[in-house]
Amino acid sequence: MSILSRVRSRARAFYAASILAALAGVVAIAACGGGDGAASTPASSPAASLSGTIAVAGSSTVFPISEAVAEEFSKRHNGVRVNVASSGTGAGGRAMCQEGTIEIWNASRPAKQEVEMDVCRENGIELIELPVAFDALSVVVSPDNDWAPCLSVEKLRTIFGPEAQDRVTNWDQVDARYPDRRLRIYGPTTASGTFDYFTEAIMGESGAHRGDLDLATEEDPLIASGVNGTPGGIGYFGMAYLNQYRDLVTPVEVENPSSGQCVAPSAETVESGEYLPLARPIFIYVRADAMESRPEVRAFVDFYLEEAPGLVTDVGYVPLPDSVYQWGKDKVADLVTGSVFNTIEAGVPISEALERAN
Amino acid sequence: MKPSPPALSASRQTAFTRRWTSWAFAGVALLATAFGVAALILLLFVVMRDGIGGLSWDFLTSFPSRKPELAGAKAAIMGTLWVMSFTALFSIPIGVGAAIYLEEFAPKSWFTRLIEMNISTLAGVPSVVYGLLGLAVFVFGMNLGPSIIAAAATLTLLILPIIIVAAREGLRSVPYSMREAAMALGATRWQAVWHQVLPAGMPAVLTGVILAMGRAIGETAPLIAIGAFTSVFFTPTSPTDSFTVLPIQIFSWISRPLRGFQENASAGIVVLLIVLLLLNSVAVALRHVYARRRRW
């Protein structure tokens, strides 16, 4: 092949590539322009005067609540499109602060100062922090377990802590009075918010946990059935799911570290602040500028705080005291930004947290 | 009785062993086939058993809900149809076009070999990587947001190598004499390709398209990476709308604790299979049309 023809064939290849690229561009533009709907547009109701699109993303723990609110809100305001993504608290924070693609961030923990609040501020985004519900964990044992109706934080640490790995394998090692029974441990995977929260509240350090679980799974039914099937089994999952598995597992009372009292996991003990340290508030964070300039975002957040108590119960979480929702509504009205909860450790009663905020 | 000569007995032995080996191999191959078929039947059986009960008109026409009995797949079905339509619109012309160029026009140079090597490498890249690429290029770079068009463009990148490889094989299966005959009658290279080679190779090209669309319709990871939503309470009306698709909706239901959602997930899988079969049946019908039209 002569040099000339080689050059020519290279040029031909280049032309063909650019023709293909141009074709792709034309198709893309044609597709963008030709947006006539093959799908049916939602029927507009007379009450719907608001319009726009609201993007919500973040924690999979908060997701069911935001989804429920979006469901009800969409029924009332047909013109507003609310999208909810279950992408994880961290990813939601990035979408909010770095990418600026969402208006509302679902967070199962308070926003971190350096990772989120500061980054948001650098990008000109101010956040309004709104607690929306309690997320509570319950530790469960097999119905055959009659020796440990109540466990202290220390004992939970002995059972689940990183030092227990390959060492604590029997119930009599947890307490000499407990029977000689093989300890079987069931829990969530390291990817879950439940895992993060449990390790923070019990071990005092996020991620500190033994690694030799008999089963680590994101499927709560598997934890419940695993614990049910082994007399020496113990596990933990979100309290929201406890009622579903009451016939399979027995919830353990947890000793409140400050009062020394054994407290059973229930809506009442969570709200009163007695069930500590395994109950935490969960949040949504809203962009202040969107609240100010976009009536549909404002309407959605107002609706969220108004309807939260009922909807939170519907999806299995524990509602906050009315005073906390009222506190949120006041914050929204005055557009008060910044995080109060990121300076408050897990296990502090919410009433105390609010007092510290004011 | 004379003892049979050792040579003959040895050859009989060999014949027996040889035949037996052949039978054994056929048996193993049959077992392998049966395994695949059994897995498919089991899959269909389990999905149908769990999912058929949850299928209803309401399921197809309702938006997601916190209550499993009210939740439906409308938004996800429409989202999947929108995304797949645009994926087909982008990927088929580009994929077949690239295949035609590489097979019919490209000179055998280091440049085309480089392209070929790139394409086969791309076919093996994990799908979530395409998601990150789509996020950077389409969602942010071209500022399309987490829209249907960004999703379709991302899925197009994902399935393009499959379509190109299959389409090239389809074109290669057309005897070279067809091109020579066309050109001997005065047709240009382009006319030979467009009027003879492409229609003749179309059945095989369409098979590749079916496989590629089947891959795309089930993808979750790249769409989550570009920011697809989980719960959507409207049906898209334009390609720039946000969306959700069936696999994401199914995954979301599976990870819920309430038993009713598990049923919804199974029903969603049945719907996904039906949508996939519908899309495929269009391609199969087209394939038959082209195969019948072929007169040689």
Distance between the termini of chain B: 63 Å
CATH class of the largest domain in chain B: Mainly Alpha
Tell how many strands the DSSP assignment of chain B holds.
Answer: 1
Q: What is the rounded Rg of chain A?
A: 26 Å
CATH superfamily of the largest domain in chain B: MetI-like
Please give a structural write-up.
- The complex is a heterodimer of chains A (358) and B (296).
- Chain A has 358 residues and is of the alpha/beta class.
- Chain A has 13 helices and twelve strands.
- In chain A, strands 1, 2, 3, 4, 6, 7, 8, 9 and 12 form a nine-stranded mixed sheet that branches. In chain A, strands 5-10-11 form a three-stranded mixed sheet.
- In chain A, helix 7 links the parallel strand 6 (184-187) and strand 7 (215-216).
- The radius of gyration of chain A is 26 Å and the shape is elongated.
- Chain B is mostly helical and 296 residues long.
- Helices cover 76% and strands 1% of the residues of chain B.
- Chain B starts with 5 loop residues before the first helix and ends with a helix.
- Classes of the chains: A alpha/beta (358), B mainly alpha (296).
- At the A-B interface, helix 1, strand 1, helix 2 and strand 2 of A face helix 3, helix 4, helix 6 and strand 1 of B.
- Strand 2 (80-86) of chain A pairs antiparallel with strand 1 of chain B, so a sheet runs across the interface.
Chart the SSEs and their pairings.
The complex is a heterodimer of chains A (358) and B (296).
Chain A: H1 3-33, E1 52-58, H2 63-76, E2 80-86, H3 89-97, E3 104-107, H4 113-122, E4 127-141, E5 150-151, H5 153-160, H6 171-174, E6 184-187, H7 193-203, E7 215-216, H8 220-229, E8 233-238, E9 250-251, E10 253-255, E11 262-263, H9 267-271, E12 279-287, H10 288-293, H11 295-314, H12 322-334, H13 350-357
Parallel strand pairs in A: 1-2, 1-3, 5-10, 6-7, 6-8
Antiparallel strand pairs in A: 3-12, 4-8, 4-9, 4-12, 10-11
Helix pairs in contact in A: 2-11, 3-4, 11-12
Chain B: H1 6-51, H2 57-61, H3 74-105, H4 110-123, H5 127-141, H6 148-172, H7 176-184, H8 189-217, H9 221-225, E1 231-232, H10 246-254, H11 259-293
Helix pairs in contact in B: 1-11, 3-6, 3-8, 3-10, 4-6, 5-6, 6-8, 7-8, 8-11, 10-11
